[in-house]
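Worked example 2:
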Amino acid sequence: MALKLKSKSTASILLLLLAVYVCLAYVLLPLFWKGYLTGHPALRDLPYITSTGDGHPGDPINIALAGSKEQLEKVMRKAGWFPADPLGVRSDLKIAEATVLDRPYQDAPVSNLYLWGRKEDLAFEQPVGDTPRQRHHVRFWKSEQLDAAGQPLWAGSVTYDKSVGLSHTTGQITHHIDGDLDAERDRLLRQLESTGQLVQPQFIPDFHTQRSGFNGGGDPWHTDGRLALGQIQP
């Protein structure tokens, strides 16, 4: 009899612990992270679109990540992205040669765009095939405002370069982006989730009140208006 009572007591304790775990892992912690992330002070004045150096509208912001610079660089590398080379004579000549001769250039540079009055702090790219004519790329800007844990928000604009051609606005040689911003946003979020280092990714609805437009090169874009948001695991 005593053995049966002990077994029932052990089973009850295990069921109680299981219930506590389920409540914490699937209800309370997700609610905490959802409120924590959407409460980042940098989100209050986050512009929805970047600008070019001459003041024209650039590519829209469609993803934001909270974490340190080291955490962002680590999770992007783990997701299969390469830090882009800085612009300069050497990198400009290298990307021109790689484009003409169909040679790979995994860390090819990207043109500068501006947010909060300054150019991007970090840029990454993911090549498509053996030529820089097509590639996925993302720029990130570090917010000056920090959250309660002292972490900045990294506002990002991720797009897909589908071809090289002449800018519709300046006539200069440039990459033309694919207009489906949401496909690139969702693709990057899935890749970051697959690393296991992104905590409670979510979407902020109606971040964009303007759902379509043109970037600085004259390329059209469209979006469902949502901003992807994630906390990089400390």
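The chain has two domains: 1-38, 43-232. The first strand starts at residue 49 and ends at 51.
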